[in-house]
Amino acid sequence: xxxxxxxxxxxxxxxxxxxxxxxxxxxxxxxxxxxxxxxxxxxxxxxxxxxxxxxxxxxxxxxxxxxxxxxxxxxxxxxxxxxxxxxxxxxxxxxxxxxxxxxxxxxxxxxxxxxxxxxxxxxxxxxxxxxxxxxxxxxxxxxxxxxxxxxxxxxxxxxxxxxxxxxxxxxxxxxxxxxxxxxxxxxx
Length: 188
Known about the structure:
Blueprint: H1 18-35, E1 53-59, E2 62-67, H2 77-90, E3 96-100, H3 113-122, E4 124-125, H4 130-133, H5 139-142, E5 158-162, E6 170-175, E7 181-185
Parallel strand pairs: 2-3, 4-7
Antiparallel strand pairs: 1-2, 5-6, 6-7
C-alpha cells in the first residue's frame, strides 16, 4: 500500500481488530481508486501522482478526501473534486466528502516519481531537474545540462517562448536542437 503523500494519518482502531482490517482495506481501496483519476489538464498523470491528494480519512460509513490545488485559482479544482468523488462512489466507497487544505501550499516537490516519468513520456518536461535523476529516462536526459531539457531529444539547448503554456502551471519552450516545441511544468 502506498502511504498518503502528506497530511495527518487517520486515527486507527486497536491493532489486529476486525475494524482495523476493514478500515485499512477501505482506505487502501480509496487510494487505489484515486490512482485512476486523471488530472483534467494533464491527463497523463493521476491526481494522486500530481500530489494534490493530501489525505484519505475514514469517517463512520463515509470517506473524506483532502485535496490541495496546484494553485488557489486553478480552474480545474471543481472538476477534480467531482472526479474524485465519483471515482470513490463508483468503487463502492461512498458517501464521499472532498475538502480542500490550502496550507501548506502545493509544491511540485509533491509530484511522484511515477508522475514525473509520465509527464516526460507525455512530452512535458517535468519540473525541477527531475529528468536528471529519473530512472528510465533516456541517457541524454538523465544527466542534463543546466536549463530545461527537451523531453523529446534530451538537449539542454532550449528557449522559453512564453511564460504560460496551455495551462498557467506550464511554460512553452522550444528545443534548439530538434526544433520541437514542448511544455515545461514550472516548479513551484
